[in-house]
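TICKET: design request
STATUS: open
ATTACHED STRUCTURE:
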């Protein structure tokens, strides 16, 4: 069964209770979510675990621990008795985490459920009426297949081929699903205008423009993205024209060339600028730095230049990084012209902390969460929220040699701290061609060279000691899994703070997993509509 979370005045109490329980649980494991796995040996993390967990982890093999990070209920593959504390933690994880199973946004039932939840009552879409239970925050969706990525040969087959050009598979899947949702919001808001913040090269904007006939303005801080996005616009427009020519030929059953179409095919082969008439059919690309303290009036001033002002719009952001997502949410609440919201977040660790002296809060955003005793999340904890277990779950099941890599990294950290005590986490990214399939010595020498440390500085006794540390790699794997099992709760806490922020502003919202999480791990879309 798929689910999504609705936050309305009626379901507020359910969300509040969920947030309270999450904060208490996370505080109970604060030392764990605030720990780097690379410090496993330097900080002796193993001895911080209860004896019952140590005994259990020592008695099982890595594949036997896959159940701890599974997205669905999975039994342990061993007959060993699991400590009650570990079983209790897993039950808490299922209760307190948002369900990640993607919903099928093609389904009319799900579309009706989303719009009904956003309007806070029954809502008619495509002649079907769906009612949501107003006193419940968790809305089950039955009778529909889960979202399918439908990939073939590295391409998302749910999209027309002309929209897949220059777009990687993951992005194809994302813009296909988010495009459907934005189109749904556009109809519900009765607005054909969309503002795409953090648009990058404009892949989403082209889909919205040419497939859904929406009028799109993109905002991107990187200067060199706009020219490339415009070039891709012209290229796609030419491809659309070719399809139009083919269809007209087929409908008229003629073989002669057709001239005087809206955009000549030859324009796609040159850098010729489109005419004023043609420009109206393209996304409008704006370069602007949207910082956390931008005034709503300034934001409106930027976008009003593209359509003359006074028009309502849907505000969107696909994996807007760090502070950008909270900024989009705040601007949405402060701009009367912003009627709909579709936001997919990422990079929680890049959220500014209170030490940055921002006038606006990026986390927590809601007054409710700020008043909770245990609402703090460190950089390390927020980074954990970005981790996803599917790939590691497969490695565990396969008992992959790559499982040793965290032990290698932790042993290298021990080595570095011994010869250079000033070395800090995050100062360098360590990789190796052979990875864990090679020896620790090979891994260490390769990475020492990358950071400019002469291997002669490493005493042979120290190297030998670090090699012996890696023999306990299974302990590192167990610690990593235990920590990873808490990641969904951390992410859920951050996301629910945002829906609570909107509710405090009188705006209904829903959190819907619209992507296949195996393809796009940050798969929750925060959707909202203002009921003016």
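STATUS: resolved
RESOLUTION: sequence designed for all positions
ATTACHED SEQUENCE:
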């Amino acid at each position: 069964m798929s689910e999504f979370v609705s936050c309305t005045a009626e379901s507020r109490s359910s969300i509040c209770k969920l947030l309270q329980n999450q904060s208490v649980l996370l505080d109970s494991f604060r030392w764990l979510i605030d720990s780097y796995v690379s410090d496993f040996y330097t900080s002796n993390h193993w001895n911080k675990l209860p004896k019952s967990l140590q005994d259990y982890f020592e008695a099982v093999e890595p594949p036997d621990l896959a159940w701890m990070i599974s997205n669905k209920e999975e039994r342990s593959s061993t007959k060993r008795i699991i400590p009650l504390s570990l079983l209790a933690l897993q039950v808490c994880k299922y209760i307190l985490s948002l369900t990640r199973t993607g919903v099928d946004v093609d389904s009319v039932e799900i579309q009706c459920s989303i719009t009904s939840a956003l309007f806070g009552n029954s809502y008619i879409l495509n002649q079907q009426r769906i009612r949501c239970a107003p006193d419940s925050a968790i809305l089950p969706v039955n009778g529909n297949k889960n979202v399918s990525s439908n990939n073939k040969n590295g391409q998302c087959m749910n999209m027309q081929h002309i929209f897949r050009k220059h777009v990687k598979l993951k992005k194809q899947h994302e813009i296909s699903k988010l495009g459907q949702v934005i189109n749904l919001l556009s109809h519900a808001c009765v607005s054909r205008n969309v503002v795409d913040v953090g648009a990058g090269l404009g892949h989403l904007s082209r889909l919205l423009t040419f497939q859904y006939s929406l009028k799109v303005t993109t905002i991107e801080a990187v200067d060199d993205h706009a020219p490339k996005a415009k070039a891709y616009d012209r290229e796609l427009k030419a491809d659309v024209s070719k399809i139009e020519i083919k269809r007209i030929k087929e409908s008229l059953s003629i073989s002669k060339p057709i001239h005087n179409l809206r955009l000549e095919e030859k324009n796609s082969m040159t850098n010729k600028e489109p005419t004023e008439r043609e420009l109206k059919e393209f996304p409008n690309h704006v370069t602007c730095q949207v910082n956390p303290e931008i005034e709503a009036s300034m934001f409106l001033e930027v976008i009003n230049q593209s359509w003359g002002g006074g028009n309502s719009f849907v505000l969107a952001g696909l994996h807007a990084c760090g502070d950008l997502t909270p900024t989009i949410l705040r601007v949405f609440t402060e701009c009367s012209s912003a009627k709909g919201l579709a936001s997919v977040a990422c990079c929680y660790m890049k959220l500014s902390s209170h030490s940055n002296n921002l006038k606006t809060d990026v986390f927590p955003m809601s007054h409710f969460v700020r008043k909770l005793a245990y609402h703090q999340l460190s950089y390390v904890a927020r980074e954990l929220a970005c981790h996803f277990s599917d790939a590691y779950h497969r490695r565990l099941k396969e008992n992959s040699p790559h499982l040793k890599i965290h032990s290698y990294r932790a042993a290298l950290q021990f080595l570095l701290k011994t010869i250079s005590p000033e070395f800090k986490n995050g100062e360098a990214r360590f990789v190796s061609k052979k990875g864990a399939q090679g020896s620790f010595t090979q891994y260490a020498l390769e990475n020492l060279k990358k950071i400019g440390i002469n291997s002669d500085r490493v005493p042979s006794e120290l190297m030998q000691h670090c090699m012996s540390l890696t023999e306990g790699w299974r302990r590192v794997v167990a610690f990593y899994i235990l920590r990873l099992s808490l990641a969904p709760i951390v992410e859920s806490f951050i996301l629910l703070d945002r829906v609570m922020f909107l509710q405090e502003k009188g705006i209904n919202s829903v959190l819907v997993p619209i992507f296949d999480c195996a393809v796009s791990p940050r798969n929750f879309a925060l959707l909202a509509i203002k009921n003016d």
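CLOSING REMARK: The first strand starts at residue 2 and ends at 7. The CA atoms of residues 499 and 509 lie 6 Å apart.
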